[in-house]
Amino acid sequence: MASLRTASPTVRNYFKENYIPQVCEALLCGLLVMCPEDPLQYLEEMIIAIMENGLENLLWDMCIDLSMRPKLQRLSKTYLEQLFGLDDQLVTPELMIKACTFHTKNLVKTHFCTWRDIAIPHVNEDEILAEKMEKAITHYNYKLQKSSFHYWHSLAENQRRKLKEVLWRIQQMLYCHKLKVVLTNWRDKARSKTKMREDELILKHERQLKRWKSKLKFRVTTEETSSPELSSSEISFVGDLPECDISLLPEKAISQIFLYLSLRDIVICGQVCHAWMLMIQTRSLWNTIDFSMVKNIIADKDIVTTLHRWRLNVLRLNFRGCILRPRTLRSIGHCRNLQELNVSDCSTLTDELMRYISEGCPGVLYLNLSNTTITNRTMRLLPRHFYNLQNLSLAYCRKFTDKGLQYLSLGNGCHKLICLDLSGCTQISVQGFKNIANSCSGIMHLTINDMPTLTDNCVKALVEKCPSITSVTFIGSPHISDCAFKALTACNLRKIRFEGNKRITDACFKFIDKNYPNINHIYMSDCKGITDSSLKSLATLKQLTVLNLANCGRIGDMGIKHFLDGPVSQRLRELNLSNCVHLGDDSVLRLSERCPNLNYLSLRNCEHLTDQGIENIVNILSLVSVDLSGTIISNEGLMVLSRHKKLKELSLSDCGKITDVGIQAFCKSSRTLEHLDVSYCPQLSDDTIRALAIYCVNLTSLSVAGCPKITDAAMEMLSAKCHYLHILDVSGCVLLTDQILADLRMGCRQLRSLKMLYCRLISREAAKKMAAAVQRQEHSCNDPPRWFGYDYEGKPLAKHHGATPHKEDLEPIVRDLTYGSEEEAV
């Protein structure tokens, strides 16, 4: 049956009510798209699915998989309605009539317009031409007017611009004239105020100096009239009225104040009154006791009494250089909570005494046994009793052997040891270093100075089992070479310090560049094999902050340029280029351009540095310390340097071109100056000291050694104003007398180090009396050596006398109450 158009209405209704065309359409579409292998099975499954979903939800693409369904739009509900003859007549007579009518109208409109264009005659061409000519003339006149207007407008704009420029110039001239007048008035007022301020400062200085002299005169009178039994501490308070009662302060504030005092000062404070005696009984004040400061005046019984009284509070003890009885040293064992112990240079310390100390103080973390007579017996005690030992110094202890180092692995061992100092222990062999590596594999900081027997094999033996080493110090080890650096590549080094080694070459710096990216401190002083190539290798170290290449004479401007062109220049804080004689102004220029964070700079004995280079130093705004000793800097350069205004430390030793004028100009602008070294500048006089006393009252360190024109009057001004002075060197100041010692004792009570070599007018008695007030003192009454350039009266010597110093000239009588800072580091 091709069609149901002629079928009975019942059959047609049956097909429509039961959705026969839709079912057939869905099945046929599924077969056409899916093309199943088994059509009958597919039809069966689809019919079951249609029955489950219902005929009302039937869609033509229901039998097609979702991924294969075509995106089509249907014009009618189903295409099979026409196939079965169930659709209504789409083209009706009414639609045909409308279509014919529309087509006829379209044809009429098209042909009518064409006929109209042909039939209607054209307008006269002359009129059109005349109209076009009129429009052309109008357009030409408009263009002509526009061109003329533009020309006039450009001329007017030029005239206006010129008039504006002339007016602007007049205004600028007027403004410059006003500004010049204002600046001139401001300059005059500023100079007037500066001069007034300087006059007031000088007047204040004179008043203070006058008050100082009257006070000194009163003090001398009081000392002469006081009874012999009056102690020096009581005399110091005569004529001084207390400004406040310190006992009224909070307990924490009182403790903090007394923490700044030495043991001797604390004892003296306890003798003032009963209230002060109670104040020094604070327990926290006795956590740290330094007997080395009073080793020459304190008795053994006082040490024993003090340790017994504060045995539970003592955490840190320092007996450096003390010659004590065995009973006194055994009393250290009563300090059960002791954490730090320094018995270096104690000649009476024995293995038996160390046994008492180790049994009584198991919690020691820091132990300094340097320069003592301990043997392998003490080395056996260390791992048994000091379980938590972290810092050990055996420097210059030459009586223990490699076997003693093997004992460090006994018991719990010294596995927590972090810092080890073996300086001067020349008896240690390669096997000894192997024993250290087996016992103390966690060492991080290693110091081996003054050890000529140290070789590359010793370093290799130590590094094999100590990969945690971060800093090494090998000063005075001439047999160390580049091979040691190659062995140290197994460690993550942060700090390297070598000095006086001729076997180290540029090759070691290649190891540093490739294997130590986190290194931040490099000390390679007096290493003659280092050249500009070494600096080029260091340019990529981003973490480097300290570089010391002093006495490396083969370094020049080109090496500094390559070094500063890298990223290392941004973090560099300290740079020491002393005695690098090939450096000049170009290097300083690069420093000012590439080092924004540089704090410390040493250019000592850089002979090619001129005043032009000093101008570049001023541009390093972060600089606080600079060493220009031995350079050709003049007063002009010093005046330029005064513009920096932030310098705290300045060294100008052996600068023959500077005079009092340059120092005065510098001091006026450097009120924050704390350290000044103008030694061996014989042209300086009292005016220099006067400028320091007026403008630099915060001075803590001063060296005027080799300045023969300095007199007692200058030192009197210094004592009256610079009360914070800690270090003073007046060696070779041949005009000074005993009077300066009385001034210093009264004015500079914080003085700790005093050097008075070749001062023949200062008596031994006065120097001995002064020695009780300072920690370190050197004095001699010998004549100045010939290389000072003048005689005992300060008169210049003939040129043939300025020769190399003789040995007898370098043997002054030295009075030391403590060791120097470098020795303390050991």
TrEMBL record:
Subcellular location, record wording: Cytoplasm, Cytoskeleton, Flagellum axoneme; Cytoplasm, Cytoskeleton, Microtubule organizing center, Centrosome
Keywords: Cell projection, Cilium, Cytoplasm, Cytoskeleton, Flagellum, Leucine-rich repeat, Repeat, Ubl conjugation pathway
Subunit-level organization: Component of the nexin-dynein regulatory complex (N-DRC). Directly interacts with SKP1 and CUL1. Interacts with TCTE1/DRC5.
Pfam family of the protein (one): F-box-like
Function, as annotated: Substrate-recognition component of the SCF (SKP1-CUL1-F-box protein)-type E3 ubiquitin ligase complex. Component of the nexin-dynein regulatory complex (N-DRC), a key regulator of ciliary/flagellar motility which maintains the alignment and integrity of the distal axoneme and regulates microtubule sliding in motile axonemes. Specifically targets CEP192 isoform 3 for ubiquitin-mediated proteolysis and thereby acts as a regulator of microtubule nucleation activity.
Protein known as: F-box and leucine-rich repeat protein 13
Keyword Lipid biosynthesis listed: no
PROSITE patterns given in the database record: FBOX
Gene3D superfamilies: Ribonuclease Inhibitor
Keyword Cell inner membrane: no
Record GO biological process: SCF-dependent proteasomal ubiquitin-dependent protein catabolic process
Gene Ontology CC terms: centrosome; SCF ubiquitin ligase complex
